[in-house]
Design brief:
The complex is a heterodimer of chains A (about 450) and B (about 250).
Chain A: H1 7-14, H2 18-40, H3 45-61, H4 63-76, E1 80-84, H5 87-100, E2 105-108, H6 112-117, H7 119-125, E3 129-132, H8 135-142, H9 159-170, H10 179-196, E4 199-202, E5 206-208, E6 213-218, H11 222-229, E7 232-238, E8 242-243, H12 249-261, E9 268-272, E10 280-286, H13 290-295, H14 310-314, H15 316-321, H16 332-342, H17 359-363, H18 370-383, H19 389-402, H20 405-425, H21 444-454
Parallel strand pairs in A: 1-10, 2-3, 2-4, 4-7, 5-8, 7-10
Antiparallel strand pairs in A: 5-6, 6-9
Chain B: E1 2-5, H1 9-14, H2 16-28, E2 32-34, H3 44-48, H4 52-66, E3 71-74, H5 77-89, E4 98-100, H6 101-108, E5 121-125, H7 128-133, H8 149-154, E6 161-162, H9 178-181, H10 183-199, E7 204-207, H11 210-223, E8 228-231, H12 232-236
Parallel strand pairs in B: 1-2, 1-3, 3-4, 5-6, 5-7, 7-8
Helix pairs in contact in B: 10-11
Classes of the chains: A alpha/beta (about 450), B alpha/beta (about 250).
Bound molecules: iron/sulfur cluster.
Iron/sulfur cluster binds next to α14 of chain A.
Protein name (chain B): (Fe-S)-binding protein
InterPro entries (chain B): Cys_rich_dom
Keywords (chain A): 4Fe-4S, Electron transport, Iron, Iron-sulfur, Metal-binding, Repeat, Transport
Chain lengths: ~450, ~250
């Protein structure tokens, strides 16, 4: 599927099936309400958010120091540490490790970073079989589609559609839509891959500078299955995944699962400190544009993101336009502030895919000022010339008119006389679905001037 | 103490009754209210669309005309938020003298009773800019003690019954120019909002933001014309029942 040009065009497509759009909205709203219930059970929720925000703020201010500390400790633990400046270098490092081991099959647990680096196609080109083992991720992989959500990659699919995918690829009976049977089929299929994989790759949720260890959170235990069975474990992390101390983990682990899915904790929070005897463990620390974002003071706080996707679930626009309506692999509110850092022109419409309602900011467990950053990106994007000419013209005209009382009054007079016609013609995006108000015969100012004259 | 009343451009032109109600309410509460001649717009539409520079002149006009007032009041949460944030960015002390109407009544005038009567079932649309931006109430995302300044004021109105909502503070989808440039999502959000109010038996939808009500009212007039929108100032001033027929023609 070719990527649609703008968010609004893609959202238009999504909204052509209103029943499905409503289902998508309700599904994600359910996750949001689960999150609310779970957050309400933690009396110190707001203090936790504040603590998380401050820890991240502090870490970002000394990022290089903490990364070095982490790398030293990890190396001392016997982990091979690699640094990658960009996605290509990351992919080359992964491939190099696999090559050295003669690996033909890689089982991957969900990692948005490898998605960002386009690792799968890179490895597949080299003849390596890559199996995504997170259930949702596997479903979209079989469909040859990217994840539509960073925590629930296949949330946009209904059960019956998953049944179709499995029927086609795993040979399950046609028309199967029982979740238990579907999960069982996936499990059998994945088990086989776990047993025969030559290497395992995982993401990293938190890397602890103090210990050189790292934590991976999954609900299905697939990261553990892969990492514990394969002779090689490769972990990939963005430079922002670091936290200073082991003691900070409690803050983030309590926030992450509750914010993400409304669970008290993820089913598996696996702590990796060193390779087991006979195993090789690698960690790849990736920049890929993050230090550039760190240097942009307006947007640096976006690096505090722990990828819980609470901002997706709460976002009324995401819920009603779907993950594929955004032009970046991280969609939703946080994606809309990360994407323009990568390519302003290509993702110019993303920061506009918001009403700036601020729900994302209020829900964010690390208190990223998401909606304020969206508004800043809008200025930067138009200043860089990525706004359609008609929008530019409309905005400059409005700015000109509202500052000139005579012109403004004339414009208003004209507008108030034409609203019935506009409502009738329904030619513009407003009146196609909404009436303009019945025009009053008098403006407030006219009324007020009369009041003053009476006195 | 003289209050500067800021009536945003679209309220001036399309909803004069909201300006009138605000003016009436404030004067009735004993305030000296003045409306300076010049400003029409706070500049939000431009800023919201990524053309903050083009809209910056609006702020200059506003600052010039309103600098002399101790308090500046406006019946529009989103305009007030934009003014506050822009003034703050310029480190202008005026930032702390601009109030949304409910905020002013609640925090400054400390109103504890109103002579208004509105015997209807009313749904309160907590506009996002007012709620999360200005802190007029507690947002449902946060675990803070629940409060709502507009709801407290509405509870002072005799006969008024506030209806509960399934999604107590979800955005209506107006979002300024979003409503035009992303009209599909905007309309879908608005329809869901009005449905929530209708299914709980609201006869009126009110809000501290006329812009949200313009969007919701526009949808209602096509889909459920029996349900009306009323700005909160109209209810608090007791002028909401009338259809606000101005008595004189304009010239
Ligand atoms: S921005 Fe905040 S809410 Fe959104 S994914 Fe990141 S941490 Fe979660």
């Amino acid at each position: 599927m070719a990527q649609p040009l703008t968010h609004s065009a893609a959202a238009h497509e999504f909204q052509r099936d209103p029943a499905r759009a409503a289902w998508h909205d309700q599904t994600l709203w359910m996750v949001r309400t689960k999150r609310d219930r779970m957050a309400a059970r933690v009396p110190e929720w707001e203090q936790l958010r504040e603590a998380a925000s401050q820890i991240k703020e502090h870490t970002l201010s000394k990022l290089a120091d903490y990364l070095e500390q982490f790398a030293d400790n990890a190396a001392a633990n016997g982990i091979h540490v690699h640094w990658a400046a960009d996605g290509d270098e990351h992919n080359r490092i992964v491939h190099g490790i696999l090559q050295r081991h003669g690996a033909r099959k890689l089982v991957k647990s969900k990692s948005m970073l490898t998605e960002e680096c386009h690792l799968n196609p890179h490895l597949e080109k080299q003849g390596i079989e890559v199996i995504d083992t997170d259930l949702g991720e596997r479903i979209v992989q079989l469909q040859e589609m990217p994840p539509s959500h960073i925590v629930m990659p296949a949330i946009h699919l209904k059960r019956a559609e998953v049944g179709e995918v499995f029927h086609e690829h795993l040979g399950t009976p046609a028309g199967l839509d029982d979740p238990q049977q579907l999960t069982e089929a996936a499990r059998q299929h994945l088990r086989n891959h776990f047993l025969t994989a030559d290497a395992a790759l995982t993401g990293v949720n938190f890397a602890v500078a103090e210990t050189g260890g790292f934590v991976v959170c999954t609900n299905e235990g697939n990261a553990d299955m892969g990492a514990h069975l394969a002779p090689v474990h490769i972990a990939c992390m963005g430079i922002e995944k670091i936290i200073p101390r082991q003691a900070h983990l409690g803050v983030f682990l309590r926030l992450l699962a509750r914010s993400a899915t409304g669970q008290p904790s993820t089913v598996f929070s696996s702590h990796f400190l060193k390779p087991r005897p006979g195993q090789e463990m690698h960690i790849i620390i990736v920049d890929n544009g993050r230090s550039r974002q760190l240097a942009r003071s307006d947007y640096r706080k976006s690096l505090a993101c722990i990828r819980c996707a609470a901002c997706f679930n709460t976002c009324p626009v995401y819920r009603r336009s779907g993950g594929y309506s955004y032009s970046y692999f991280i969609s939703g509110p946080i994606g809309s502030i990360l994407a323009p850092n990568v390519d302003k022109a290509a993702h110019a419409s993303m920061p506009f895919a918001s009403t700036l309602c601020g729900s994302c900011t209020a829900v964010c467990p690390v208190k990223i000022d998401i909606h304020a950053q969206l508004l800043k990106w809008r200025q930067d994007i138009t200043a860089a010339g990525h706004a359609p000419w008609w929008k530019k013209a409309a905005m400059h005209t409005t700015a000109f008119v509202v500052r000139r009382p005579a012109l403004f009054r004339l414009g208003g007079w004209f507008m108030r006389r034409t609203t019935p016609l506009l409502n009738l013609l329904r030619l513009d995006p407003w009146t196609q679905s909404r009436d303009l108000p019945p025009a009053p015969t008098q403006t407030f100012r006219q009324w007020h001037n009369q009041q003053s004259n009476k006195k | 103490m003289t209050l500067g009343l800021f009536i945003p451009c679209y309220i001036d032109q399309l909803y004069p009754q909201v300006g009138q109600a605000t003016y009436t309410l404030l004067t009735r509460l004993g305030h000296q209210v003045e409306v300076p001649e010049k400003p029409a717009c706070c500049g939000q539409p431009m800023s919201n669309s990524g053309f903050a520079k083009a809209g910056a002149g609006c702020l200059t006009d506003f600052a010039r005309e309103y600098a002399r007032f101790d308090h500046i009041v406006s019946p529009s949460g989103s305009c007030v938020l934009h003014l506050k944030e822009s003034l703050e960015a310029q480190h202008s002390p005026m930032a702390h003298r601009v109030y949304e109407l409910c905020e002013f009544l609640h925090d400054i005038a400390k109103v504890d009773s109103l002579p208004a009567r509105f015997p209807h079932r009313v749904g309160l649309h907590q506009s996002c800019h007012g709620l999360r931006g200005l802190g007029l109430g507690s947002p449902s995302e946060c675990r803070v003690p629940a409060f709502s300044k507009p709801a407290r004021l509405l509870q002072m109105v005799a006969g008024l019954e506030l209806v509960p909502l399934d999604r107590c503070d979800e955005c209506c989808g107006f979002g300024g120019t979003f409503s035009v440039f992303e009209s599909d999502v905007s309309v879908s959000m608005g329809r869901d909002r009005i449905q929530d109010h209708i299914s709980h038996g609201a006869e009126f939808i009110t809000s501290a933001d006329m812009s949200c009500l313009m969007h919701l009212g526009g949808l209602l007039s096509r889909q459920a014309p029996q349900v009306k929108v009323r700005h909160i100032a109209e209810i608090l001033a007791g002028t909401a029942e009338s259809e606000a027929e101005p008595s004189l023609n304009d010239g």
